[in-house]
Amino acid sequence: MKRRPLQSFALLLLGLTAITVYSLFRPKPQYELRTLNSPTGWGYRIVLNGKPVIDQPTVPGQSGQRGFVSEALARRVGERVVSKLKLGQFPPTLTPAELNQLGVPIQ
To answer: How many domains are there within the chain?
Structure first.
């Protein structure tokens, strides 16, 4: 028995609706940014659904064990890293130009 065009269209529409609803309401990764203070300065930790995924106690891409000079600066850089993770970039590498743009003094 042949399907009528209206039935085929209705099935297609129902399928597309189901896919749309699923993509809108499926659980999305929940990243949490925490700042850390240490004797060498500030750093950050990024947690995904309760599990640490990145622990960055120092300024990324810089030699030595120097942390960020302020909590605000560590938070700003951590937020950029979280935004890259949400875009699917792993590892979420920051270039010296990006660090400079965020206000991190480069040595």
So the answer is: 1
In a domain, 18, yes or no: no
Other Cβ atoms within 10 Å of 50 Cβ, number? 7
44, part of any domain: yes
Instruction: Look at residue 3 and tell me whether its pLDDT is greater than 70.
Output: no
- Count the Cβ atoms, other than its own, within 10 Å of residue 25: 8
79: containing domain? 31-101
Of all residues in the chain, the percent with pLDDT exceeding 90 is: 49
- pTM, two decimals, is 0.71
Amino acid symbol at 95: T
Say if 17 falls within a structural domain. Answer: no
19, 9 in Cβ contact below 8 A? no
Q: What is the DSSP letter of 41?
A: E
Q: Tokens for 59, please give them.
A: 């300024």
